[in-house]
Amino acid sequence: MSEKQDYDVGVTNADAADRESASDMVSGGEYLEKGLPADMAKDLTAVEDSDVALRRKIHLVNNAIDEIGFTWFHAQLFCIAGFGYSVDSQMAMVQSAVKTYVDYQMKGGGYPISTEIYFAGLITGSVVFGFGADLIGRKLAFNSSLLLSSIFGFFTGGTSSYAMYCIFMFLSTVAAGGNLATDVAVFLEFLPSKYHYLNTSMAAWWGVGQTIASLISWAFIPNNSCSDPTDCPSRMNRGWRYCWYTNSGIVLGAALLRLFVLRLGETPKFLVSTGRDEEAYEAIMAVARKYNRPCSLTLEQLRACGEVEHTYFDTSKVTSIRTALRGLWLTTRTNVKILFSNKLVIRSTCLIITSWLFIGIAYSVFYNFLYIYISTHGGSTGSSPFIVYRNATIDNFVGIFGPILAGALILIPRVGRRGTMIFGSLSCMAILFAYTTCRTPSADAGFGSATYFFINIYYSCLYAYTPEVFPTRARATGVALCLVADRIASAFSPVIYWYGSQTGSSVPIWVCGAVIGCLSILAFFMPFEPSKKRSV
């Protein structure tokens, strides 16, 4: 029996389960034999666990969301959730842009400690907010993360010692990193299946955030920073503070929009997965009533599906920090079991996490060594900070359009999500290897723009694919695991760079470029193609 056949669809008839292929549509007759609605074949039921009642409820919720269709609420959510992508990339770009000048003023150079603190914050945020979103719901994490990130960002810009800078940057990054773990899940769980391609195109906001951060750095760093690490008092080095203040102000604006304009409620799929059918029904009907859309779903239909398995943690029992931590542990343990519940889901989970691990270390290490390689081979990509930040702005602006193309590619039947990831990874590998021939600032701008464009095709599709193929109850936990893997791998890049740069070796460039190309192999063997079915 092949792995593609060996999975549980929530019924006791194993022979019937073996006949179903995860990659192909299943006939309605087979579902009728199993006592399930015939049109449930439209749903990606293979990724769910054995809870038949939950799958029935998710199926009804999908039908209701599709019946309501795309509304102004979804357009708002696309922008406001998308800004979570923007904030994540803004934090990375701002931290990277100001690091040298913060070191000049407070530390004097040496090992990049602040970079490791930054990655530690991302990892912590992914764990706390990502795992917590499957315990307390998506709403609280979604609404609080940007607000906390902006507040601590303002404090970061006002610090006067390196220790305090690292502490407040860590806290700001925890909130920003946790935000990304919930944004894509929230948007997916409200989105009609016809418009799932927008989940991929939403990553265009990542390029928007990178462009904003590059513009901020370009505006403040060149004319408000010192160039001599031995003489760099605060009065001559205000640029990095202006960057943090401006960026935090933009993030605060997005946080206020989430709190007072969109006013997001809990997602219906999370509510039904925790046995709160009435709240899920009201959440769906609230959208239908507000935009005068038809919705034939009834509360009785949800209740008639039966009771979901009580493997979730009842948040009403939280009376202290101790019980909250215990609840987080129990929920996470249960959800991890769901992500490794049968052979097919295990294969999917392992391939996705491995993809995040590889891209996390390969892309970061490649870029760290790239400019050393170019300089040792007679090239010069930036004669001044102005040129460096100008090129970065151009690169990131072009990167916006990669996810837009990816959103179009996944609509092509023979391409889909996996084909788009294969195209993105192979194209990026080719551009990165060609990048090593760069010798001038103009060539750097051209190769950099092409790199950001193609890597964002891959990244955007991977970001969208990841929550689509994780079960509803464990969706945020699965996304969090992937982000933790990505960020742990990225945290090793400064270490590799620090020690590798002492030897001047060019081996990391060729190894990492090849690893990025190998991501296409992982994508090819991923068992699910969400383009053919609705996510659960």
From TrEMBL:
- Highest taxon above the source species: Eukaryota
Q: Name one GO molecular function term.
A: transmembrane transporter activity
Which residue ranges run through the membrane?
A: 117-133, 140-156, 162-191, 203-221, 244-261, 350-374, 394-412, 419-437, 449-466, 478-500, 506-528
- Entries under InterPro entries matching the protein: MFS, MFS_dom, MFS_trans_sf
Any idea where the Major facilitator superfamily (MFS) profile domain is?
Answer: 70-532
Sorted UniProt keywords: Membrane, Transmembrane, Transmembrane helix, Transport
**Membrane topology designation:** Multi-pass membrane protein
| Compartments, as annotated in UniProt | Membrane
Q: What is this protein called?
A: Major facilitator superfamily (MFS) profile domain-containing protein
State a GO cellular component annotated for this protein: membrane
